[in-house]
Design goal:
Blueprint (H helix, E strand, L loop, with lengths): L4 E5 L6 H15 L5 E5 L5 H8 L5 E4 L16 H6 L2 E6 L2 H7 L3 H13 L3 E6 L3 H5 L3 H16 L8 E4 L13 H18 L1 H6 L1 E5 L7 H5 L6 E4 L6 H10 L2
Parallel strand pairs: 1-2, 1-8, 2-3, 3-4, 4-5, 5-6, 6-7, 7-8
The structure holds phosphoenolpyruvate.
């Protein structure tokens, strides 16, 4: 049985006061929910978030990580540093990182490995652009992104990892993949892993991300291969995020 996971990706949003209000509210109302709930604030707020969620069921994640373990890499943050601040999860290969910061499949796979080496659980983000979907390449693109990790680390790497299917055309656009569209890709991801190890595939959590809102969460999460969500904009509004978490319950 896979435990549902809802992870909030705050992106580059937040401020000390706002974070405090948001996290206190979510932490207070998260108790009693069966799903796992993670919040991924920007790096400077990890310490604040760590102390605010202490004793609550919330867990902490980060939005990116360096592929290096330490050294002269100005501006970068190592996985071991994230672990020191209590992170359990870290996103790797978010489409904004791929598109805006040139992260290739190969770099994403190294980041995935760096995260696991530090004891973090990588959340591998995959997904196609609108033009790739329109030209019928969705399956091939997602399979290629997943293969980069499977090829480097083998299927065992998926034992302690999460995959997030995030169609690029649905991220921050208000346009959501239909439950059937999402389910089709989630099933293909699981099948790709199952070819290598059916037990690992059966236990792998695959999240959907892309304009998840209180209005569409329940139907998306009701699909058999959707094990929760990676939530952007709606993770910044306590009521919306909590309603989405309840939908995953
Ligand atoms: C995201 O950034 O991972 C995301 C899913 O954003 P949104 O929910 O705003 O589409």
């Amino acid at each position: 049985m896979r435990r549902m996971l809802v992870a909030g990706n705050w992106k580059m949003h937040g401020a000390l006061h706002q974070n405090s209000e948001l996290l206190k509210r979510i932490a207070a109302e998260a108790s009693g929910l069966l799903c796992e709930i993670a919040v991924c604030p920007p790096y400077p707020y990890l310490a604040q978030a760590q102390s605010l969620i202490e004793g609550s069921p919330l867990v902490l994640g980060a939005q990116s990580v360096s592929e290096h373990s330490s050294g002269a890499f100005t501006g970068e943050v190592a996985a071991s540093m994230l672990a020191e601040f209590g992170c359990r999860y870290v996103l790797v290969g978010h489409s904004e990182r791929r598109a805006l910061y040139g992260e290739t499949d190969a770099v994403v796979a190294v980041k995935f490995e760096a995260a696991q080496n530090a004891g973090l659980v990588p959340v591998l983000c995959v997904g196609e652009t609108l033009s790739e979907r329109e030209s019928g390449e969705t399956g091939a693109v997602v399979a290629r992104q997943l293969s980069a990790v499977l090829g480097r680390l083998g299927v065992v790497a998926m034992r302690s990892a999460v995959v997030a299917y995030e169609p690029v055309w649905a991220i921050g656009t208000g346009v959501t993949a239909s439950p059937a569209q999402a389910q089709e890709v989630h099933a293909a991801i699981r099948a790709q892993v199952a070819v290598l190890d059916s037990g690992i595939a059966a236990g792998l959590r695959i999240l959907y991300g892309g304009s998840v809102k209180p209005q569409n969460a329940k139907e998306l999460f009701g699909q058999s291969d959707i094990d929760g969500g990676l939530i952007g904009g709606a993770a910044l509004v306590a009521d919306d995020f909590l309603t989405i978490c309840q939908a995953a319950n």
